[in-house]
Protein: (apollo) hypothetical protein
Organism: Parnassius apollo
Amino acid sequence: MEKKIVRKGPLPGGRQGASGAGAGRDSMRAASRARGVARPPSSPPHPSSPPEGLVSAGSSRTQQAAPAAGGARRMRWSKSMNENALRAYFRAKGEETGCLAYRARMHRFFAELEPSLSVTEQNLADRVRYILRSNIFGDAELERLRREAISSSNGNATAGNAAPLDAQQTAYVDAAVNIPFVANSDDDGIVSHELEKMRSILEESMLETRSMPLENRPRLPRIPLSKRNRAVVRALNPMLVTYLEASRDLCETDSILFGAELAVCRIIGAKLPVAGRATQKSSAITAWRKRIEDRIAKARALIGRLTSFRSGNNRPRIMRTVRMAFPGTNFSLFQPDITQKLTERIDDLKQKIAAWGKRIRRFSERSRRFNQNRLFQSDQKRLYKSLERPEVCGAGPGPDQADTVAFWRGLWSEPVNHSEGPWMEVVASQSASVTPMDPVTITPEDVAEAETEPYWKYNPSPVLENDSAQLYWERSVLTDRTVEHNRPDIILVEKEEKRTWLVDIGIPNSHNVQKYSTEKLIKYQRLAEEIRQLRRQQKVLMVPLILSTTGVVPKSLTDNLVKLGISVRAASCDQPMPNFKTLKGALMQIV
DNA sequence: ATCCCACCGGCCCACTTAGA
DNA sequence: TCTAAGTGGGCCGGTGGGAT
């Protein structure tokens, strides 16, 4: 216990101070290599004759101070053990990313390779993790071990090894056998027909690249990371060694590597552009944009058909499309609420189109910024040039200087008597004949009448629309970016004012009123922003209508009702809460 | 020669994550 | 819900090099 408290050593991970700078991993490995069989006298082998590779823990000093519990022994991982660990790892893992129970298999394979050692599965997994993380082996060495492991498992399979292989392993082996070049990619002296062919393609490509000017190099396609392609690359790698060793400078190395890349493309049959980069022009419309635009076109066509059907067109072609728009068995085109359903579906599609439109704008903006940033990084001059507007800057002769001065001086020096003109009188006389609209007030009688049908039986239509407004009732809004809360109770869109109201009604406990109200405001913030962008609204206003279960009403309720143009009488404490139908009636009236 | 320090390596455990 | 894999972090041994 005391040891824990007085511990002064650093926490693992960080490398602190310079005193131990030389005591890194390398020095430790070097030491373990140098030690070989003979152990320094300060750390004698454990008396219980541990298996090879296990050494006693702690120096003589520490052992005296605190004999490790149960004579704990630590394993010394030699290079060959590390290699075997990796072999087992690669063999167990194969090239499948989602293989199951690989640790168990790896453990088994390791036990075959190092029968004298006893390590737990967790030990081994930790060790492999450590090896891979700390770059003990270089990439080339890792690749070699991987190849060895793969070919060894391949060999086992073909030789009918008795070691049981599970389904995945078998699948992997089968796949590997089917790949040309893999079986012969080992440096075992066997040169297959395929390898010879690859070598000749490689030489040809490198020769071609060497004599090719830099700007004429074709743009190479991105190659899928398939097993076959990787096998080709692996087979080419050892061939490159001699060329790279003979390379005199970086340019030559670059040429060799490009030639090799070209060869890989040719071997796997990847499509290469015929001429150099300059002639290759990318399509003006990007693929993502085309996809979205196609989707929008389809949706628009469907809206056309649905609208046509709603207005009475029963032609078979229209009917067929409409049926396809409403998949499912329990749906009839002649059911009573079909108009409502059509309206909803049409509105859905319109919302989707708006969202896709916004997505195109968003992506285009992003792409524009990306390209500008890239250009800024590579060639600032070109960027600023591209930002200039040639039709404004430097196009045609400038205005005469004397004229300009005279114009601006004349603007302020001569007093002008302003006159409204006769049109004002004309408009005023026309307006005089217009009768003013009666003020809209909701009386208790109106409310009573509305309540003849119990509010819980009232089933409003989710979408109502006229020329000036659109009203959603408990309807999700489709947005470009996913918004978690996209369904306030009521959404009212005033088309001309370009203003949207999001109304949410809540009945919390009385002590929660304030919190609830704030929560509502926060909850729909993102939706409000999305709607503003999607529908290009001037304003999107969130109006929470909160009444507590005990009838306590926040001060904001009156203001909010007034904002919505609803009579505030119903909001007094001794009145029952205005039901949804009343509220909606009022909303439609202000529409 | 011995101690001290800082760091790395090995081991273990608790916990999370992903997938069936 | 269970299992396997993966991860973070703590503990402590081992080590080299500087200080004493």
Notes: Chain A has a mean pLDDT of 66. The CA atoms of residues 130 and 136 of chain A lie 9 Å apart.
